[in-house]
Design goal:
The N and C termini lie far apart (about 45 Å). Helix 1 runs parallel beside helix 5 (about 130-155) and helix 4 (about 90-95) runs antiparallel to helix 7. The chain is built from seven helices and six strands, in the order βαβαβαβαββααα. Strands 2-1-3-4-5-6 form a six-stranded mixed β-sheet. It is elongated and about 60 Å long. The chain is of the alpha/beta class. Helix 3 (about 65-70) links the parallel strand 3 and strand 4.
């Protein structure tokens, strides 16, 4: 089983996720990395062969040398479904008029949100929901997904089984998000209201 797990996540999530993992492996050492810089410092110069890397709702891109240095595979918990890879995905789902949304766990790969998918949970998007509400709903679903996978991740060396589900080809970026927040005088009132609901 893993000797230690590096959690790439925010301060608010780290302690809670650590407690979930340690319920299933009391001997497990959990290390918190807030961003890519801290992650590289933690992984540099040590023997990480028994170290599992988990990323939870992090915008940091993990460098290939780090992925190669830790126990294979590393896993990312993405606050969106396979149909919406990238960033700010709740906003784009609302703008597209999607009925369903979800969360995804997948193996990390050099290209963001492209690795084999190991778990997906779907849910209905309530009518009229704003992007902030959908992000909260996705976070709650992602936490449940983490809890479901934690027994294996904390105490089992074997990789999680791949699902026969692929990613959408276009991953959204922060630049795409900023562009959609731009309003011009030629837009209809309906378009402006939709953009405000989806992008703020």
């Amino acid at each position: 089983m893993p000797k230690e797990i590096i959690l790439l996540t925010g301060d608010a999530e780290a302690l809670h996720l650590e407690n979930i993992l340690k319920r299933h492996n009391h001997e497990l050492k959990v290390i918190h990395a807030r961003d890519g810089e801290e992650l590289e410092a933690i992984c540099s110069g040590g023997d990480n062969a028994r170290t599992r890397l988990l990323s939870f709702c992090s915008s940091s891109i993990v460098p290939i040398p780090v992925l190669n240095s830790v126990m294979f595979p590393a896993y990312n918990f993405h606050p969106g479904p396979p149909t919406y890879p990238g960033s700010h995905v709740a906003s784009f789902a609302i703008y597209d008029g999607a009925d369903m949304f979800g969360v995804t766990a997948h193996e990390m790969a050099p290209v963001v949100d492209s690795g084999p998918i190991v778990a997906v949970d779907w849910f209905q998007i309530p009518e009229g929901m704003r992007f902030s509400g959908l992000e909260i709903k996705a976070f709650e679903a992602l936490l449940l997904l983490f809890m479901n996978l934690a027994p294996h991740l904390a105490s089992n060396d074997t990789p999680l089984e791949h699902l026969e589900i692929g990613w959408a080809t276009k991953a959204t970026t922060s630049k795409d998000f900023d562009k959609m927040r731009e309003i011009d005088e030629n837009m209809s009132e309906a378009e402006i209201k939709l953009r405000f609901r989806a992008f703020g």
